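Subject: Sanity check before I submit

Could someone independently write out the structure tokens for this chain? I want to compare against mine line by line before I put it in a report. The sequence has 721 residues.
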Amino acid sequence: MCGGHNERFDSTTLPVVLLGALISLILPSLGGWAELRADDEPAERDESEDEDEDEPPTVTTTLEVLGHLRTPAHDAQRRPESAATVVIDDSVPPTATVADALLRVPGATIRRTGGPLDASFVSIRGSSARQVAVFVDGVPLNNFGADAVDLAELPLPAFDRLEVYRGFAPPHLGGFAIGGAVDLITDPDRLPPPRLEVSYGSWHTRRVAMSGAVPLPDGAGHVRAHVGYTGTQGNFRAFSNNGTLYSEADDTITPRGNNHRDQLTGLLTVSARVGRVDLRVLDLASWSDGGEPGAYSAQSTETRSRSIQNLIHARARTQLSPTVSLSGGLGWRLRSDLYEDLLGEVGVGNQDQRNHVHSVDGDLSAALDPLPWLRVRPSARVNLLLHRGVDHLPATERGPLHRRTGGQLAIDAQLTPLGERLHVRASLGALLLQDASSDAPKRTSLVDVLPGVAIALHPVPELTLRASFARAVRAPSFVEMFGDRGSVVGNPDLLPERATQVDGGVGLTLGESAGSAVLGSVEVGGFVREVDDLIVLVPNSARVGVPLNLARVRLAGIESHGAISVHDMFVGRLAVTANLGSEILRGESGTLGNRVPNVPAWQVSASLAFVLRDLLRVQWSFVGLGGTFDSPSNFFEQSVRPLHDLHLRVQPAPRAPWVALDLRNVFDTFIGTAQRNPLRPAPGDVAPVPLQDFRGQPLPGRSFMLTLGWSPRPRSPGETP
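---
Independent answer below. Compare away.
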């Protein structure tokens, strides 16, 4: 519960129960993979066709056109929102993380604190991590911007696709998040085949992942599960100037200390039909334990952290009539964190804390189709968030109980008055939040009305003209108001962030007809976002920061993305895909017109893949960014970062085991340069600095991961039975 306790943090019970339960579900599916395959393939098949050299099999290539959702159920080209989808299939490296997958999305930037299993967060169009709403199958992980979601805790292979909304998002996905929304989706109609992967690589990083599905009796539904373990020493080489930017005499390259970590993740979903009701239960759990290395110039030796979280959610849906459906869900999330800094190595003062968070969430919505070209969806969502900390130094002391009660009423309308030529989505929502703390009589409330509208016009099927407008809001989190871990000083007088955003773009596709040998798309767009009272962390001393409001911040950007896929070459034996995306951002703050901190001025991403039947895949990818400042003062500018990755996958036969090699940061780039005197920059007057997203947290150099895997058949893009 939220109350304090004197026992030590129990780290074993939940992971062991979770691991045992999931394995017990997966193992039967491994034994019955042939039965599952029979459900997904034609009943009669001549296996000799695979060996017929006169008629080589055609390569099936689904082009990932980011910004145009290309799944069997939806098509984001027809959506008015600025949406993007990343399909999780065999084109995604097996050791890729959710953060890696989001790098494929225009407008998305990832901030990391280091190597494998270290925290990573997503920023969309220059937003903060707390401004991005993150969901799992539509279930919120940070309701109303209550926290920043660590993407390293989410198992990418457990999902079928990621849907990303930049800016305006549907009300059922928060609707009014300043930075948009990310939804990690498992297809409720898909029974994936059994899959086993084992990986090993740099810094003694090891990984095991298993997944599969079991049908319920009489075709009433299925159970789907994924369980994974990852561990690492994390002792990559890190550059340190020992805090002396003006002198290179004491510069060193040393292993990253106290950066080991072990992590268990699991996802269990049960889909069933009972009478006229479709039921779906989801359970997402994770356990993590390891060291906290501290800043590169003063690494810790004993500081450690541990976390356990579990999210369980149940949803029911029924079709009341041909034009009316009703859906409701109820969920509970528990998170317990341990943080020990007994020597005062990272934060200020000695720390031995346990933080407990409970979040109860409920929602109810209806879908009404009164006319063929109109769908109306009224909805309501309520959330109760409880947070309490327990300090074990000098004696067990229960902190105050913080409570946030939230409610949201919204109505969403989707219109197609001109058929497929015009798509309109309009929403209007009312948000009410109320905060209370057991140690203070003061209660704070937030009430806001938030409209939004998005339009997509298709003069011809291949051309899309898109525009949207939305207002958004985010209340300060408990960490921002009350502090945490000795390194953040709370500020209970923070004002909520409020934003207005407009965007627009033009998209063009080619080769949409069946059997096209060339598929492609290009999209160019821009946006302007103004945020009042943006919350930023300002350094208060060498080791302490305090969150403050900036008066007004203006962010503007230009985004472009292009993709092309050429296949059926050499009688269906070779496929080539290429992606190129870029973003130019300009952020100005109320601090003397300085740039907004932690927002890159530009970012470029590219990838090129060659696929030879099902036998070989070679893929190169690149991400480069620059022009990022650490704080509103714009004193320290991060070094330009060009990173190259390579992925090689070999499978001798369609149902044989496969092996994959992933090389990250191929050119071992982990040291950059910075102006020796930022106040008076001069050409050539530079000093070496580590590459970093967060000041004091270096990024690793070159690494490799070797993976051996097996599945009775490959994961196909957007696959459904």
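---
OP: Matches mine. For the report I'm noting this point. Residues 13-31 form the longest helix (19 residues).
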